Amino acid sequence: MRSFALRRRGRSRSMTADTVRIDLTSAFALAETPSAPELETEGRVRYIVVSGRQDDGLWGPMGALWLSQDEQRGGFLVNPWALWGGSEIVRGYRGALERHWSAEQIYTYWQREVWVGPYTVDEEREAETLLLLSELVNVL
After folding, report:
1. How many CB atoms lie within 10 A of CB 93?
2. Domain residue limits at 80
3. Residue 8, in any domain of the structure
């Protein structure tokens, strides 16, 4: 199974850690999996695990919202058991970026929001690299 992350497209055509790759032609499209080199270039990250109803209807981790150490980059890594719900969170993340929210503002919103209903958010943790976080999300 694969994990997914949202990244924002900059002005250049080069791939960076903040490039969005969502198929805008379909409302049902999922975000693409970031490549290993993209994951390896991001160092220490903070993250919070978001839980909710997974694709099979059971409650469990949907993925992890992450923020870079310099608070300039972030995204949501989707658990392979929550591709549909996790992709919805990715779309919401992308929408917030389009409304000029920063990665730090999105992370802080999810971290501080009192979630009554479809989601729970765990306490903040740290990972040495985004790649390690991606591997963790895949086995949650």
Report:
1. 25
2. 36-139
3. no
The residue assigned the tokens 């919070």 is 48
Q: Which H or E element spans position 121?
A: strand 120-121
Spell out the long-range contacts of 26-33 with Cβ–Cβ below 8 A and sequence spacing 24 or more: 29/87, 30/4, 30/78, 30/83, 30/87, 30/90, 31/4, 31/5, 31/6, 31/78, 31/87, 31/90, 32/4, 33/2, 33/3, 33/4, 33/5
Q: pTM value?
A: 0.72
Look at residue 112 in the predicted model and tell me its pLDDT: 85
| 56 within some domain | yes
* Residue 46 confidence (pLDDT): 94
Does any domain span residue 73?
yes
Beta-sheet strands, E only, within 38-112: 45-53, 59-68, 74-78
Residue with the two structure tokens 């270039």? 41
Per-residue pLDDT tens over the stretch 61-87: 999 999 999 999 888 888 888 888 888
- Let me know if residue 46 belongs to a domain: yes
Look at the chain and count its residues.
Answer: 140
| Number of structural domains in the chain | 1
